[in-house]
Amino acid sequence: MNALLRAGASRRALLAALAVAAAPVSVHASDAVAEAPEIDAVIIVGQGDRPITVQPRGLSVSLGEAEFRAVNAVNVEDLMKYAPNFFVRKRFAGDDNAVVALRGANTVQSARTLVLVDGFVVSNFLGNRWDFPPKWNVVGPAEVRQFDIVYGPYSARYGGNSMGGVISVTTRAPERNEVYGQSQVMTMPFKEYGFDEAFQGYSAEAGLAWKPEDSPFSLRAGFRHFENTGQSMTYNLLTPATGTGTAVTGAFVDPRLATPVFGAASPVRVIQDQFRLRAGWEMDSGWTLEAMGFAWLTDQDLTDTRTFLKDAGGSPVWQGRVAFGGRTWNATGLTQSLTRRTEYLAGLRAGGDAVGWAVSANVSRYWIASQDGRTSRDMATGLVNGAGTQTQAREPGWWTGAVTLERTFGDHAVAFGADANLYETRSETFSTTAWKNASNPVFSASTWGKTTTFGAFLEDEISLPGDYSLTAGVRYDAWKAHDGGIGKQVAGRRVDDDYPERTDSAVSPKLSFQGPLAAGWEVQLSLGTATRFPTVGELFQGRIDDITQQIDPQSFDPNLKPETSFDASLILRRSFGDVRVTSSVFLQDVHDAIFSFQGLNPFGQVVSSYKNVDRVRQVGVELIAEARDVGVEGLDIDANLSWMDARTLRNASAPAAEGQMFPRIPEWRSNGSIRYRVSDAARASLGWRYATRLNSDLFGLSRGDAYGFQTEYFTMDGRFTLAISPHAELGVGVDNLLNDQAYVSHPLPQRTFVVDLKSRW
User: Fold this and answer.
1) C-alpha span between 721 and 639 (Å, rounded)
2) Where are the beta strands (DSSP E) in 57-164?
């Protein structure tokens, strides 16, 4: 609450704008009943009897209980992993950096996907990189009722961050009095280089719902505790040196890598506690009010750093000049670190009828109340609690709000509304004499900044003769980057530099047509443009170099242009008995694409820099099959295959990139699952995920099948569930059944065994 009370003037201005936008909410409801547009009769993959919660323009997918039961869901984002042309960069169970790759929005373009939980924005648009993923842990797997995914920016209701798509998570509403619980254990035998051990974890989740029959109030509360140790995310390579060094053994010569591997970052020990509260009030007027609160506490311990080097006496060698394989090398880059973080979400939404209009409005605040990261300078200081660095975040987070009004006038379903957001961040880095205790901190560097966006839209869905419809929409966005700056240590004193305020705006028209074709086919053609403005991190939040402990001047750019896209989608669907086939052809042409180029520096560490790429174009084809009761009753198959060609067409600053496949986007991708209802009590499933090898850089020069590269992958997952009572279910599963070794620069999980027990009363 202190964070809320300390809100500044810019924050109050944003709330004032939202209050004006939401003014129709206070109008007395009339006797007329507002009718919202019918959106459950359009082309939606996977939809059952539940309405989709986002506007289905372009390829739209809805996932529910039938699909979820076939997934070994350790974290909530696992529930989507078999969706078409979809990939989540999840490196280990409990990974904070699970970024979505949706079609051409690759795994370092996190700001191209808008993620909502019960209508509240949980997308972390403080940056656009692998470490700015959506805040998935707002909800646990047991709480999810539905996942809806829309590919592309074809609805005017959503801002430019929907350039890749929109993901809506709907949690279980408190519909009756109940209690629930779920426990889970997992183990992953891991073998690579100097590792041959099993990493283990567990989770426990419980909650209750309260909904008396004659009461307008409802409540749902939940708690989840999660612990796991994930494999090391980084391997350290020797670097060539001259002179003499300590004779060592134990390094691994991998012909796929340029130099031998000598060590690894610590396996990631993660502990998370999540608290959730959802309350509702149904008024006699038909209006509903809902409030949501959330707290997430995270501890990450990376103090089990490994070296594979040993000297002649068998003692470990952590760093320094060494002699191995007849050559002299430098062993450097190993560190230890600890991170603690506390995050909160508070949201309020309302919906009902006002003078014949269906009105919905929401406002939310997400903030990181404390974030403290402590890292040793190297392994020598790490082992003795010597010198290091401390990085503290000063309550970064965001405010978001939106209001929408909908009504049907004859053949027109009209919707209009407004939304706004404020994203702000500030972090400071200090040099310390004892890294674990953050003793004697001395200022080193600081970054800060804010972005504000206000948007308004108008959309009209027109019913045409012959069951056709035409939806036309337009969106206006006004953007401002402000209060940005960078501080650094110069000649023993702090020097701050402020960046000038920037403003920009964009108009984005949208158009979608759908209806039946001859011979039972259905068609949807959608066109749209989108403008994605730079995030706080891209503009202001410079990266602190792990070696120099100074801000990397290439890691941000306050003069970045917004990226703009033109998108087109053509969808055809037809049912053949129990099989429904959906095909999608899409185009996305992006000007001034913002790309975070990543690679390894001489110390084997990942570095990045932001730049505009003049023009990137991708085209693709998606084929999706949904089959029910195939051959025998109870056998269902969902399968999808995607082909994409994403290329840099123009890059004046680096012409060598022109014509190359854009990084981290595969040419082929396939996901799917086979589910069989063995009996009323037992179910079995088999899922798969596949993608061809990706480029790791803009120039197509960094391609490989080892650590540091973006590699192909093929994983198969199996699961079996058995209802052991009317209220309890036991599940046993294996992820990555064939133990495929794949990398997203970092090693992905190897074969993992999962056992869970669920109960609901």
Assistant:
1) 21
2) 60-63, 86-89, 99-102, 113-117, 120-121, 144-151
Look up the pTM and report it.
0.91
Smallest CA-to-CA distance from 120 within 263, 270, 294 is with 294
State which of 4-13, 277-286, 603-612, 683-692 shows the largest mean pLDDT.
683-692
- Which region holds residue 724: left if phi is over 0, alpha if psi is between -120 and 50, else beta? alpha
Backbone angles phi, psi at 232, to 5 degrees: -60, 135
Residue 75 and residue 97 in contact, taking contact as beta carbons nearer than 8 Å: no
- CB 206, CB 174: distance < 8 Å: no
| Residue owning tokens 């519909």 | 175
**Closest listed residue to residue 588, CA positions, set 286, 160, 12:** 160
User: Which of 142, 50, 125 minimizes the C-alpha distance to 759?
Assistant: 142
pLDDT tens string 310-355:
999 999 999 999 999 999 999 999 999 999 999 999 999 999 999 9
Q: What would the mean pLDDT of 280-284 be, rounded to a whole number?
A: 93
- Rounded CA-CA distance 609/278 in Å is 40
- What 3-state class would DSSP assign to 8? coil
C-alpha distances (whole Å) from 760 to each of 723, 724, 725, 729 are 12, 12, 10, 9
- DSSP reduced 3-state for 495: strand
Taking 50 as the threshold, does the pLDDT of residue 3 lie above it?
no
pLDDT tens for 702-758 read 899 999 999 999 999 999 999 999 999 999 999 999 999 999 999 999 999 999 999
DSSP 360-413: EEEEEEEEEEEEEEEEESSHHHHHTT-SEEEEEE---EEEEEEEEEEEEETTEE
CA distance 263 to 248: 13
> To which residue do tokens 């403290």 refer?
372
Report helix, strand or coil for 247.
strand
At 608, is the pLDDT very low, low, confident or very high (cuts 50, 70, 90)? Answer: low
Distance CA 42, CA 220 (A): 32
- The one-letter code for the residue type at 458 is L
User: Residue 257 and residue 270: Cα distance in Å, rounded?
Assistant: 29
In sequence order, which residues have a C-beta less than 8 Å from that of residue 2 and are 6 or more positions away?
Answer: none
Say if residues 479 and 451 touch (Cβ distance below 8 Å): yes
Q: Is 77 left (phi over 0), alpha (psi -120 to 50) or beta?
A: alpha
Q: Which residues of 491-523 are buried (b: 16+ CB within 10 A; e: fewer)?
A: eeeeeeeebeebeeebebebbbbbbeeeeeebb
| CB 522 within 8 Å of CB 572 | yes
Phi-psi region of 164 (alpha: psi -120 to 50; beta: other; left: phi over 0): alpha
| pLDDT digit string, tens, across residues 544-593 | 555 555 566 666 778 899 999 999 999 999 999 899 999 999 999 999 99
Inter-CA distances, 677 with 356, 628, 630, 640, Å? 46, 11, 12, 21
Residues 6+ apart with CB under 8 A from 617: 587, 588, 589, 590, 646, 647, 649
Tell me: the pLDDT tens digits for 163-222? 999 999 999 989 889 999 999 999 999 999 999 999 999 999 999 999 998 899 999 999
282 exposed, middle or buried (CB, 10 Å; 0-12, 13-18, 19+)? middle
Retrieve residue 459's tokens. 């959309």
DSSP β-bridge partners for residue 218 = 280
Residues 377-387: tens digit of each pLDDT: 999 999 999 99
